[in-house]
Amino acid sequence: MPLERDVNIESLLKIDAELNEIQDLDILLERMLNEARKIVHADAGSIYIKETVEEEEGVFTDKLHFRYSQNDTLQKLLPPGEKLIYSVFSLPVNEKTLSGYCAFSGKLVNIPDAYNLPPGVSYAFGKAYDQISGYKTTSILTVPLKNAEGNILGVIQVINSKDKEGKTVPFSDEDELLISHFAINVTLALQKARLIRTMILRMIKMAELRDPKETGTHVNRVAGYAVEIWDRWAAHHGIPKEDSNKFRDNMRIASMLHDVGKVAISDTILKKPAKFTDEEFKIMQTHTSEGYNLFDDPQSPLDNLARDIALTHHENWNGTGYPGWVDPVLGTPIKVREDGKPLGKKGEEIPLAGRIVSIADVFDALCSKRVYKDAWNEDEVLQEIRNCSGTKFDPELVDIFFEILPHIRQIQQLYPEVG
Ligand SMILES: [Fe+2]
Ligand SMILES: [Fe+2]
């Protein structure tokens, strides 16, 4: 048995174990695509997830939602730390496109040359991506992600296999085997991550019953922005990739849960159409410590992070936020100001995750329409974020936010407001 093959199998096992540890669906999809590309030396690729959507009342159709795209050749043209921007779209599950066909038939498709498709195939190759990006797609391997019951969960498409000299070659029979094996092994991790996402969104739905602003799309966007801000912060601070990856998984989930403590606040307060009285405002502010108290496993890094974020996402960099230095379990002040109220946490006293979610949450709230206000336009929102640098927000994070603005806009596309 050649050595290279042994190494492949060993690394496959290691990858399976690593992917199984990932809890968040988006983080997992991104990693899956990355690992799939590595296994078959693919220069580029995309990953799709299948969802059943209700297009009109009572009419359900299967769609393939494009989630992530990677391209080493185009990536190398960007400055270090930058990520590619790609457009987000959905495809019908049918024979007309390559990925659609793969999801429709459940079959692996290996195309040596995209510009010379075998005669008689039902699908066409979409040249738009190559035309826009200047990239040349040649070999394509498309594999369905199928669970044990044979249901298609999604599709991985890898593009342009590279040989040792970096030349583009067709995907081999061995590549087909390796990627099929990979696709089978990751479905459990994928199903687990989907289940976790579903459960989290159900928790959010419960909070939404109290506060209609806390929707699934809002929290998905806030979590998406938070991870992008974290990635850039970690790159600036030289955090090792492995640590940063672990943290981003927890960060994604914990950020979604920032306001889940609102389940504990009464409807008469949260749904009040008029301004809060001082007393009502005080009660509303306790959603932070109520959220903290929902996550009570000190052994779990996810719980610890969810606690930090729930408790501190309304603290301000200059110490004017809430709840400040309180004991979140007892609700009593730990440090007090002259007037007896709890002292606000300020600067780096506020955990980094809380500082990150603060910007992400405010940005999304300002961009969204709310009962009491219209959506602001992007210029106004950005001006506001800039104005709050050093007062409400950590100035370093505001700078990072502006550096990654194209990615923030991409997340808005990935999780658009519905209805
Ligand atoms: Fe909040
Ligand atoms: Fe929020």
Describe what this molecule looks like in 3D.
The chain is of the alpha+beta class and about 425 residues long. It is built from 16 helices and seven strands. A hairpin with a 5-residue loop joins strand 5 and strand 6. The longest helix has about 40 residues, at about 175-210. The chain starts with a helix and ends in a 5-residue tail after the last helix. The structure holds fe (ii) ion (2 copies). One fe (ii) ion binds near residues 214, 218, 222 and 259.
- Look at the structure and give the mean pLDDT: 91
Total helix count?
A: 16
Helix/sheet category: alpha+beta
User: Total number of β-strand segments?
Assistant: 7
The sequence of SSEs as H and E is HHEEHEHEHEEEHHHHHHHHHHH
What is the molecular shape?
elongated
Ligands in the model, by name, code or SMILES, are: fe (ii) ion
Describe this protein with a few key phrases.
419 residues; alpha+beta; 49% helix; binds fe (ii) ion
Per-chain topology:
Blueprint: H1 3-21, H2 25-39, E1 42-56, E2 59-71, H3 72-75, E3 90-92, H4 98-105, E4 109-111, H5 128-133, E5 140-146, E6 152-162, E7 168-169, H6 173-210, H7 216-236, H8 241-256, H9 267-270, H10 278-285, H11 287-294, H12 301-312, H13 352-367, H14 378-387, H15 395-403, H16 405-414
Antiparallel strand pairs: 1-2, 1-6, 2-3, 4-5, 5-6, 6-7
Helix pairs in contact: 1-2, 1-6, 2-6, 7-8, 7-13, 7-16, 8-12, 11-12, 12-13, 13-14
Bound molecules: fe (ii) ion (2 copies).
